[in-house]
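Record type: monomer structure entry
Structure origin: computed from sequence
Chain ID: A
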Amino acid sequence: MRYFKRAILIASAALCFNLSAFSQDITLKANNVTVKEAMEQLKKSSGYSFVFSSADVNTKKRISISVEDAGIEEVIKQILQGQSGFSYEIQGKKIIIKKAQTGTVSSAQEGKVRGRIVDATGEPVIGATVREQGTSNGTTTDIDGNFTLDVAPNANLEVSYIGYQTQVLKAQSGKMLAVTLKEDTQLLDEVVVIGYGTTTRKDFTGSVSSMKLENSPVALVANTNALETLKGSVGGLDIGATNTAGGQPSMLVRGQNSISGNNDPLLIVDGVIFLGSLNDINPNDIATIDVLKDATSAAAYGSRSANGVIAITTKRGKSGKPVINLNMTGTMQSWHRQPEFMNGKDYLQMLHDKNGNTVESLSAQQRANYEAGHETNWLDEISRTGWLQDYQVSVSGAGEKMNYYGSYIPPDPKPGGYNLCL
């Protein structure tokens, strides 16, 4: 019984000690000191020390603190006043400051949107894209045309599918949305050029990509090569770079078909096989470019089109008064990555490291230049910022029996040329 009473007494004393340690009354007064200095004063007076990352807490901020017989939590709030974005945890005499976890949008802020997408006949649209407008948050419809997506409050949904008009609607959580997509008649009625004439996209079963240059934003970009306008705009067409001045970039339609043979696609200009280079065609004379990528091209042009076909249609005159267009382009050229060469001091140091005697390694002329302090940066002497000017003029129109389009490029600063279509 005596030992039992002694054990209870020791346990009670330990409990009282822990409680008093946690609720220790702290007095701390400081005026216009930094956060770091306040932390050091707290450590001296109470033994509490802070553990944190300098990126989470601004220790140089100046504060004034005045607490008397206060708990440790109140002191922490006073020291970290005006700072946010973190939380803290007390472990014994250690105050651990952690960066607040931002996480993702909580379920209370998110809303789950469900819906079904069908076409005009009521058939489900499989693989339609449903995206929260303005974000990358999205999903696709399943085999039944259904979708489920977690979105932020007051979000808009953007529904799109190839051959259909894109629709934007308000997201309504907790309600089954019914979306009916309408056919994009403008896209389906687009005229494409094939080997044996022209047809509309909706009636054409082959793989073809079309790009209109006439009156399009792409035409506003100054390009001296027609291929430059196609880069990144036509799926399945890989356009490489050229390492020679005036050279034509390499072209691959749906990858390389031959290891040693020619892989360039067949070029067709206004229905005629073109054996020249696209550098010879003025980009401003091009109205549309159609890229045929499957067996449809082989049916019209045979084995020569095994690597695909690029069909170019040039501009035509339109009825009305004659139209004169003048395009002027100015381009500046500079070093993309200028090589670094040794200056005179570095060159002498290289000779010294190599031969051990710098002066004897120099010729008489080099020694005279070295003694006179003459240095010439020959790269700067033979190079400068290039300035290219490009002028192009075209005349187009149409009468009762004939339409015409003509263009001309002056021979300076590059070889000139002309084009006339009647």
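Annotation 1: Residues 111-183 form a domain with the Immunoglobulin-like fold (CATH 2.60.40.1120).
Annotation 2: The first strand starts at residue 26 and ends at 34.
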